[in-house]
Amino acid sequence: MDLSKIKKNNTMATEDTKKQTKTTKKANEINKEITELKELIAKLEADILYSKAEAENIRKRSLEEIEKARKFAVERFSQEILLVKDSLDAALIIEKASLDDYKNGMELTKKQLINIFEKFGIEEIDPVGETFDPNYHQAMSMIESEDDPNKVLTVMQKGYKLNERMLRPALVSVSKQK
User: Fold this and answer.
1) What is the DSSP string of 141-153?
2) Is the pLDDT confidence value at 113 over 90?
3) pLDDT for position 8
4) 24-29 own/partner pairs: CB under 8 Å, 24+ apart
5) Does CATH place domain 122-178 in 3.40.50.300?
6) Cα separation of 175 and 171, whole Å?
7) Is the pTM of this model over 0.90?
8) What is the rounded distance in angstroms from the CA atom of residue 96 to the CA atom of residue 103?
9) Using CB atoms within 10 A of its CB, is residue 113 exposed (0-12), middle (13-18) or buried (19+)?
10) Which tens digit of pLDDT belongs to each residue from 144-178?
11) Nearest C-alpha neighbor of 160 from the set 110, 109, 118
12) How far is residue 159 CA from its own chain's centroid?
């Protein structure tokens, strides 16, 4: 064989080996990147699952807290209103009380109840002389009067608001022209 052919074959073999080495090196780099990306994807998926679980736990805790708040919202009010019941019970126990004693006791109990109402934002609506407002009053009758029309003449039952929200409208008689 010719020496030039051998050199040529060796050169070609060397070049093929270099190309294979480059290709292998590049394949190894790509495999390494793929492995790193797979690890990153696995970590991100785990983070997402953790975040979902955490959000679900927060949602469940919030629902539990709302339920507890709903369940025990009237607890403070109940404790205060029990004092009024105790006062009424105490009045009924007294055997030899005069009508004035009962009246005084009722006035004190009413003051106690009014204080509780104020404490919890319950406002009384007593609209005598005011213009009729269907948002706060319920007309039970209309009475001919010298007053301006649609004025509240009498209150049959007072109304109440809780923190500006209507609990019960006042039952009223309203004036109408003669």
Assistant:
1) EEEE-SSPTTBEE
2) yes
3) 64
4) none
5) no
6) 14
7) no
8) 14
9) middle
10) 888 788 899 999 999 999 998 999 999 999 998 87
11) 118
12) 27
Single out the residue of 144, 150, 126, 145 nearest to residue 136, CA to CA.
Answer: 126
Show me where the domains of the chain are located. 1-71, 74-120, 122-178
Tokens representing residue 122 in the block: 């319950």
Angle formed at CA 171 by CA 85 and CA 142, multiple of 5 degrees: 155
Between 2 and 114, the more confident residue is: 114
Reduced to 3 DSSP states, what percent helix, strand and coil does the chain have, rounded to the nearest 5? 60, 20, 20
Instruction: Determine phi and psi for 162, rounding to 5 degrees.
Output: -115, 110
- Residue linked to tokens 């109840």: 113
Length of the chain: 178
Determine contact, residues 126/153, Cβ cutoff 8 Å. no
- pLDDT of 15 higher than 80: no
| Residues 153 and 174: beta-carbon distance below 8 Å | yes
Q: Which pLDDT does position 6 carry in this prediction?
A: 66
Strand, coil or helix: what is 26? helix
CA 57, CA 51: separation in Å to the nearest integer?
Answer: 10
d(Cα 119, Cα 87) in Å, to the nearest integer? 18
Q: Residue 49 corresponds to which tokens in the numbers above? A: 């699952």
